[in-house]
Amino acid sequence: MAMPDGLPVDQRSPRSIGASEVTGLEAGTQALRATDYRHGGEFCLTALDALIRAGDQMLTASASGKVRRQLYVALADLHNVAGWAYFDAGFANRARTRFCHALVLAGLGRHAGLTANVCYRLGRVCLHQESLDEASAYFQLGQLAAKQSGDEIGGSILSMNSAWTWAKKGSWDGARTQLDRGRGQFADADHTRVPDWARFFTAADLSALTGAVHTDLARTVDRQHARTAVPLLVEAIDGYGDDMARSRAFSLILLSTNHLVEGDVDQGVDIGFQALVSAGTLGSARVRDRIRPLAAHARRHGSHGGARELAARVSAMPAPPAGGLP
User: Fold this and answer.
1) CA-based diameter of the chain, in Å?
2) What Cα–Cα distance (Å) separates residue 155 from each residue in 96, 128, 206, 318?
3) Who contacts 234 (Cβ-Cβ below 8 Å, separation ≥6)?
4) SS3 readout for the chain
5) What residues form DSSP beta bridges with 62?
6) What angle do CA 35, 37, 254 make, to 5 degrees?
7) Structural contact between residues 54 and 8, judged by C-beta atoms closer than 8 angstroms
8) What pTM was computed for the model?
């Protein structure tokens, strides 16, 4: 992907910077975040690395105290986006490095709300890798930072993801407690003043996460949770626009899974093929990882021709590349 117009790509370190340079950095970060949500992290890694090089050069420039603090926060968010993109592209170690940079810069900028968001994203890396205790620890740290900043949206994101962790551990009580907390925080939040890094968390995303929680509870506690998950995921899919194509693909995968668990094979297969089409348009290793278990669910309905075809097509997806980036 080419750098969006207007980004600071001059390779020479500026002698001094003002608010306009930081605003340009923020605009570049926002553009690349939008690309990540719409197309997947694989489509924006090169541009993110170039923007980070340009942003890091600003650290050596002279600036007022106010501008320098704004720069720290802007750079922290840029590293935050880069970490998420690397995670989505399948490079967890690089993602963790970027997130660590983001935590340091957010601390220098004294921005507890952004610190909470970085903790959430680090927790999600752990959740994807099934490192559930580590994920819980990051979500708890994030909750402390969100509470310090008075950030109810950030707190809701962390509570809902904590609920997902409890669901994966097989605890309905733990998941329910965090679900209730997260929904309460979302209801109490000021939705007119949401920072860029948390704007993804809309009512659609709240429904999607709740559906994800019940999907895992159907696996670890009681399959009846699949019935609860279905309308939540339908609501999420209907609420996502093309700007959140990756999130919609995740929800399609979960919805197909739940229909297959419930025995509604025709619906499960139909939605599974929709998920495959969506996955094929995205540069996201994470989507490909999340769709692979769908093959096993489809194979449980071996007498259904569509289910057999779905399982075969999912199984034929390319395997993750061995190793990482050079």
Assistant:
1) 70
2) 21, 20, 12, 37
3) 255
4) CCCCCCCCCCCCCCCECCHHHHHHHHHHHHHHHHHHHHHCHHHCHHHHHHHHHHHHHHHHCECCHHHHHHHHHHHHHHHHHHHHHHHHHCCHHHHHHHHHHHHHHHHHCCCHHHHHHHHHHHHHHHHHCCCHHHHHHHHHHHHHHHHHHCCHHHHHHHHHHHHHHHHHHCCHHHHHHHHHHHHHHHHHCCCCCCCHHHCCCCHHHHHHHHHHHHHHHHHHCCCCHHHHHHHHHHHHHHHCCHHHHHHHHHHHHHHHHHHHHHCCHHHHHHHHHHHHHHHHHCCCHHHHHHHCCHHHHHHCCCCCHHHHHHHHHHHCCCCCCCCCCC
5) 16
6) 150
7) yes
8) 0.93
Q: What's the residue count for the chain?
A: 326
Alpha-carbon gap, residue 91 to 1, rounded angstroms? 18
Q: Extract the tokens encoding 124.
A: 């999600």
Q: How far is CA 302 from the centre of its chain?
A: 33
Token code pair at residue 101: 């940079």
Q: Residue 278 in contact with residue 245, Cβ under 8 Å?
A: yes
Which tokens is 251 given?
């929800």
Return the closest-CA partner of residue 79 out of 99, 58, 63: 99
Q: Domains of the chain: which residue ranges?
A: 207-318
Are 307 and 267 in contact by the 8 Å Cβ rule? The answer is: no
pLDDT along the chain (326 residues), means of 10: 48 80 97 98 97 94 95 98 98 97 98 98 97 98 96 97 98 98 97 96 98 98 98 98 98 98 97 97 96 97 96 88 45
Query: In angstroms, rounded to a whole number, what is the distance separating the alpha carbons of residues 124 and 160?
Result: 11
